[in-house]
Specification:
- The protein is mainly alpha-helical.
- It contains seven helices and two strands; from the N terminus they run ααααααββα.
- A two-stranded antiparallel ribbon has the order 1-2.
- Helix 3 crosses helix 5 and helix 5 crosses helix 6.
Length: 163
């Protein structure tokens, strides 16, 4: 009887681990889809799945930023990790801010083409925020400080819907 319970517990843990692994792998594959398609998928899933997708986009973006020698992935992760920040809220804030900047910016250095892969689209968004700045609390922050200001702004907020 004890052996049976141990086997059941081990199988349950293994099942939950594999389910989480497949969710992460699926979320990683979704970053390769065009941004406009990724956004539709993100709006149609549960909050938990959206959070996994958003966290994965942040990880992929951090990797791209590091490859471009803009900021190390560990620094990027450190800025946006924490139990007090929803990854999905960071992405909403990023999209809103870059959409506003798009109307006032004359720079074509980081084009926001919705048919590009989602990870490339967000890479361009974060590059714009990094180089052009983030406005918060009557200040414009640039460079690493812009990302820190964004994280500070998104901290301790109630998770926002994606309607």
């Amino acid at each position: 009887m004890e052996t049976f319970l141990i086997v059941v517990v081990i199988m349950t843990v293994l099942f939950l681990f594999m389910r989480g692994l497949f969710s992460f792998k699926n979320a990683t594959q979704l970053t390769l889809r065009p941004f406009n398609e990724w956004l539709v998928l993100a709006k149609g899933v549960s909050k938990k799945e959206r959070e996994v997708m958003s966290h994965t986009i942040l990880l992929e973006t951090g990797s791209l930023l590091e490859k471009a020698n803009i900021i190390s992935q560990s620094e990027f992760k450190k800025i946006f990790s924490g139990s007090r920040i929803y990854a999905s809220d960071v992405l909403i804030l990023t999209l809103v801010t870059t959409h506003i900047q798009d109307h006032f910016s004359e720079s074509n250095e980081f084009p926001l083409n919705e048919s590009k892969q989602a990870r490339i689209y967000f890479y361009n968004c974060f590059c714009r925020l990094y180089f052009e700045g983030f406005y918060s609390e009557s200040n414009i922050y640039k460079g690493k400080e812009s990302l820190i200001a964004m994280a500070r702004y998104a901290t301790d907020k109630e998770q926002q819907p994606w309607d």
